[in-house]
Amino acid sequence: MTQSPVQPPPPLPAPPHSAGGGVLRSDVQVRCAGCRVILRVKPGVVEFSCPTCQLPQMLPPELLSRARPQFQQSQQPQPPPQPQPIQTLPPLQQLKPPMNLPRPPVPAHGIDPTKMQLPCANCQAILNVPHGLTRFSCPQCHVELAVDVSKLNRSLTAPQSTPPNPSAAPPLPSPPPPEEVNEEAIDVEREEDEGGTAGETFMDYRPPKLSIGPPHPDPIVETSSLSAVQPPEPTYDLRIKEELERTKALSCLQIETLVYACQRHLQHLADGTRAGFFVGDGAGVGKGRTIAGLIWENWKVGRRKALWISIGSDLKYDARRDLDDVGASCVGVNPLNKLPYSKLDSKNVGVKDGVVFLTYSSLIASSEKGRSRLQQLVQWCGPEFDGLLIFDECHKAKNLVPEAGSQPTRIGQAVVDIQDKIPQARVLYCSATGASEPRNMGYMVRLGLWGAGTSFSDFNKFLGALDKGGVGALELVAMDMKARGMYVCRTLSYKGAEFEIVEARLEAGMEAMYNKSAEFWAELRIELLSASAFLPNEKPNSSQLWRLYWSSHQRFFRHLCMSAKVPVTVRLAKKALSTNKCVVIGLQSTGEARTEEAVTKYGVELDDFVSGPRELLLKFVEENYPLPEEPEPLSEDESVKGLQRKRHSASPGVSIRGRVRKMAKWKPASDDESDLESEGRFHGEYIPSGSVFNAAESADDSNDSDDEFQICQICSGEDERKKLLHCSECDKLFHPDCVVPPVTDIPSEAWICYSCKEKTEEYIQARRLYIAELQKRYEAALERKSKILEIIRSLNLPNNPLDDIVDQLGGPDKVAEITGRRGMLVRASNGKGVTYQARNTKDITMEMVNMHEKQLFMDGKKFVAIISEAGSAGVSLQADRRAANQRRRVHLTLELPWSADRAIQQFGRTHRSNQTSAPEYRLLFTNLGGERRFASIVAKRLETLGALTQGDRRKVTLLSKPFPGCLAGPSLSAYNYDSNFGKKSLMVMYRGIMEQEKLPVIPPGCSTDEPETIKEFLTKARAALVAVGIVRDSVLANGKDVGKLSGRIIDSDMHDVGRFLNRLLGLPPDIQNRLFELFTSILDVLVHNARIEGSFDSGIVDMKANSVELLTTPKTVHVDHMSGASTMLFTFTLDRGVTWESASSMLEGKRRDGLGSANDGFFESKREWLGRRHFILAFESAASGLFKIVRPALGESIREMSLSELKTKYRKLSSLEKARAGWEDEYELSSKQCMHGPKCKLGEYCTVGRRIQEVNVVGGLILPIWGTIEKALSKQARQSHKRIRVIRIETTTDNQRIVGLSIPNAAVETVLQDLAWVQEIDD
C-alpha cells in the first residue's frame, strides 16, 4: 500500500437545524486518491473528478450515507457542484480530539479506479490495493494483510454479522458490489510493462553525413539506441582534408571524429569556457591515430602546442608512431618525465612547440623544491592557450566524485584543475570506459551537461536525476550527447568472437584443502580473540587487528579460488595450442609481494615455488599475533641490598652510619633567596627545597644537644643515645643489645631492622613470583604462536598461480609474461628446486622488458602470453595481419578484474582492428558461491557500462548473446547482487536465519514435509555466520532452548552485500553454496514481486508489434540553441494482434517440424470475466521446458509459463471450432476496448490488452527537459506510469527507429503544457 496513516481531524460541529425541523448535512471531506489534496464534497455528490489532478473517483462506501440528504428539499434539484480543494485547513497533525470524546473515525481517501478496493480484515477500512499486490500493511491499523485472490469475491461480499443494538444508529447501507478482479488483465499489464523481446542491439555503422576517406578496415558497429539519433550537420572544413584523401591514413569514421571534434571546439559553454568533445570508441577502433590527426589539423591552423596525457610512459612510442602515420613527422613528442622542472620553453629545456606527453601520475608530481608539473604545464601553455588538451584513457580520473565516505583522488582533482587554469583549451576526453557509471563523469566539466544554462545546477543534481531514471537514463545521456555533436561511440563488431563462462569445479584435493583452510581461519579467529583478552588496556585498538584479519582472509581465499582454476586453465591452454591457436591468460595480481618476502627470508634458491596463501598467512600471524609484553627480570637494584641503597638515597635525614643527621633550621623562602639556596644543599647538609638556610641559627643550634628525643623503640630508654641504631626503612631507633639477635658490630652502611628486613624479602619474593607468572604467560603465548606458524607451514596450500601456470606451460622460454613484476621464480634445469631471477637481461632494460615479451609473442616465438593490468595497458595482442603470429587468440580470464572498466580494457587487448580472426573468450569461475563477490563488482559496472561505451545495457553484459554472431552463455548481469534488491534480500535472509521473521522461501536441501531439516539448516547457518564474524555476541542457550545459538547482527552488516559475499568465501563449500543459494532465491522472489508491482527497472523496453506506424507528424517541443538539435514528441499506432490463421500456422509449423508436445494447443481461461473467457495458444519451448504463450490481442508474450500454471488457469480445447470462434471474437473486441471492459474507470486512456494502441515517445534531446517530464509523470494515477521508462520502437514500413521516454496517453497534454514553460512551441 502506498497510503500512509492520516491523523484524525477535529470533531465536526453539531449540524444546524433548519426551519423545517430537518438537519442540514455538512460537507464530506475526503483526500484525493491521485494528488492527495483534501477535497470538500457537497451533500448528494457521490462521483466526482479532482479539480487539481482531474482524476475521476467516487466516495468510499463508508461515507455514502453521509453524502445522501436525510430529507428531500422542496426546491428544484441543482446540478452537483465540483468539489473544492481546501486551502486554509490547519495541519492535520496539529488537530487533536478532546480527551473526553470518543476517537473520531479516520477520514477516508477517495477510491482510486486503477486499483482494487478491499476491506481490512481487522478494522474494515476500504483500502486501495494495486493489482497483483498480495502482501501489504493496513495504513490505518498497521495489521499485516494477505490477498487470497481465489476467495476475493466471497470475502468482499460476505455480510458482516454484528449483535443487535436497539440504541445504535441505523446501519449503513451495504457497499456496492466490488469490481470483479481480472487476473488475466493483471498478467497482461505486467507483460506490457516489461516490453517485447530485444532485437538486434548493435547496428553496422558508417558515417551518416560524411563520405570522406576510405572505409574502416574492420566491421564497426554502434548500438541501436545511438543509431536512432542523428548527429548535427557537419559544417567544419578540414585543412588536412586533401592530404588525408591522398594518403588514406585515416578511415571515414576517424575523419568524422575529426570534423565533429573541431566543430565542437568552436563552441563555448554558458560560463565562457570552450566546449569539449568525448571520443568513446571501443578498444581497437583507432583512437590513437584519431588523436594524431586532430593534432595535425590544429598544427596546420597554427595551434602548435598540445598536451597529451595518458596512462603509461611507454605509450609515447605509440604516439610517435601515430603522428608519423598521419604525416605529422615534424611534430615533436616531448616526454615530460625526461624533462627538468624548470620552464619548458627556456633555453636549457628548449620545448617551444609540439606535443608534451605525460602520464596522469606526472600531473600530480612535484619537485623537492615544491614546483609542480601542473604549474610547469600551465606556464608553458600560457593564459590564452587554445590548443589541444587531450585526456587519453581518461577513466584514470574517474574517482573525482567518489562514493560516500571516501575522498576524491588527487588525479581527478588535478584533471579538473588544469581545465580550470586554461579555460580556452580544446579539451578531448578519450576512453572506451570513460563513463562506466554517471558518478565517473564528474571530471568532464567541458561537456556542458550540468552547470550554467542547463537543467542541472551542479553535478550532484545531474547525478541524482540519472539515478532516478535508472539504467535507461544513461542511454539517453549518450544519445543526447551524440545529437548535440559532442560524442562518438563506435566499437569493433564482435562478430565471430565467442564468449563462454567456464565453471572450474573444485577437484577433490582442492575441496579438502578449502575445507581445511576454512576450519583453520575459524580456529585462528577464536585463538586471536583469546589472545587479545590477555592484552592490557593500553595496547593499540584491536579494531586494527580485525581489519587486517578480514583483509588477509579475503586475499587468502581469493588466491585459493585462483589456484583452483589453474588445472582448468592449463587444460584449456594446452587444448588451444594443440588446435593451432595461441593463448592469452588475463589476471590481476601476480603475487610478487609474497614472492619477494619469501626470497628475502629464505634466499634466492628455494625448494619449490612460493605459496602465496601460505606466505600471506605466515606474515599476518608473525606480525599481528597479540603477544603480551615480555617482562624484564629483577635487576640488581631490585634485590634486598639494592632496595636498601635506593631507599637510603631517598631518606635525606640519615647519615651513612645510620645515625640521625643534624638538621639545619629552615623557614619559608623569601623573595631574596640566593642561587645557593635554590639548589637545596649547603655544606653537604640537606635543605628542603624551597627553604631558607639560616647559618647563624644553625650555629646556635649546634651548641644544643643532638640527642634530644632519641629513645629506643624497644626499651624506650634514653641511655647510650650515641649508640642507637637508626633503621633506614621505618626510621625508628634501637639499642644494639635490644634487638634479637643483638648487633655486636656497628654497621658501616645503612642498617635495616629485622622486622623491615623480613617485609622487604617478602616483597622481593612476591615480585619474583609475579614476574615469573608474566614470563610463563608470555612464553605460553609465544609457544602458541609458534605452534600456529608450524601448522601454517604444514598446511597443504597451492603455489603462486602465475608461477605455476608458466611452469606447467613450458617455463619462461615458452610463455611471454607481460606484467608489472620485476623478478620471477624459474625451475632449475635438473627439475630440482627453483631460483629467483630478474625478468630483464643485460641487453634489455626493465622498462622495455614487456615490449620485448610482446614482440616475441607477436613474432610467433612464444604462443602463450600472460597479461596483468599493470603490464598490459595499451598493448595490442590481436591476430594482427601485419604480425607473424596470426593464430586465433583464446583469451582466458583466470581472475576477473575488479571493475568492468578494467574488464573491457583487458578484453580489448586481443580484439582490435586489422585482425585475421576474432578471439575466443573464456571466463573462468569456480563453483563457489562466494567467488561471485568479484563477479558482482564487475557486473554492477557492466550493467551500466554500455550506455556511454558500448550502448545497450543488455548487450554490454558481454555474455548473454553479447554481440551479433556470438555464442550464447549465462549473462554476467545474473551475478549482480550488490543492488538495492540484493541489500533487501540480505536483510530478509539474516532475519530469517536469526528466526526474527519467517523466510519467504524454503532453504536449499530442506522440505516443508520435514520441518527438522529447516531447523537443522538454520542452526548450521547461524554457526557459519558466527564463524565469519557476521553474528556477534553469540551465546549458547540453556533451559528449554538448550544448545540454541543466539547473537546479533549489527545494522551496518544487515545491508552490506559486499561483506556477506567476502565472508562467505571463508566457509566450507557445502554451507557456503547453500547460504548463497538461499540468498539468490530470496532475491528472485523480491525481483518477481517488484515486477508485479511495477517498481522494477528493466532498462530499455522494446515495443514490438505486427504493425507500427507513425500516427501524426512529430511535434517539436524544444530546440537546443548551441547545436540546433531538437526534442520531438512522436505518436505511434501499434497493432499487436495475431489472427486465427497466423496462430493456426504457428501450431501446424511446430507439429510439422516435430517440435510439438502433447500439451501444445489452444486453451481457454477457466474463469469468466464480464461473461467472457480469454483464449490463448500455448506451445512448449524446447530451450527452457516452459510454454510460450500467444494471445489474440497481444501476440507472443516474452514471459513463459510453467505447465502447472497453465493447467491451473486454463483448460485445453479439443474443439477447433470453439477455439476459432473465441479467438476471433477476442481479436475483434480488443481493437475497441481494454481487458477491463467498457466500464473501465480509465476509459480510453487504458491500454491493458488493447490490440490497437497509441504510444507517445519523447525523443531527441532529453536532458534539457528532464525535470519537466519528471514532474508531469509524478502526477499520474497508475504507479507504473509514474516511473521514467525508456523505450525503443521501430516502424514496420520505413524502419525508422526512435528511442526516448514513454509518455502515458493520460499525461500527454500535461507534458505539452509544462513544456511550454521551457520554450515556445512552434508546430
TrEMBL record:
Q: Which Gene3D superfamilies match?
A: P-loop containing nucleotide triphosphate hydrolases, Zinc/RING finger domain, C3HC4 (zinc finger)
Cellular component GO terms held in the UniProt record: nucleus
Composition bias, Low complexity: 85-98
Acidic residues bias spans:
180-195
What UniProt keywords are attached to this protein's entry? Metal-binding, Transcription, Transcription regulation, Zinc, Zinc-finger
The GO biological-process annotations, alphabetized, read as:
regulation of DNA-templated transcription
- Highest rank taxon of the organism: Eukaryota
Q: Offer an example of a GO molecular function term for this protein.
A: chromatin DNA binding
Q: Residue limits of the PHD-type domain?
A: 709-759
Compositional bias annotation for Pro residues: 1-16, 161-179
Query: Where is the segment annotated Disordered?
Result: 1-22, 68-110, 156-208, 628-648
Q: Which family does it belong to?
A: Belongs to the SBNO family.
This chain belongs to the protein called PHD-type domain-containing protein
Instruction: Kindly list the organism's lineage.
Output: Eukaryota, Viridiplantae, Streptophyta, Embryophyta, Tracheophyta
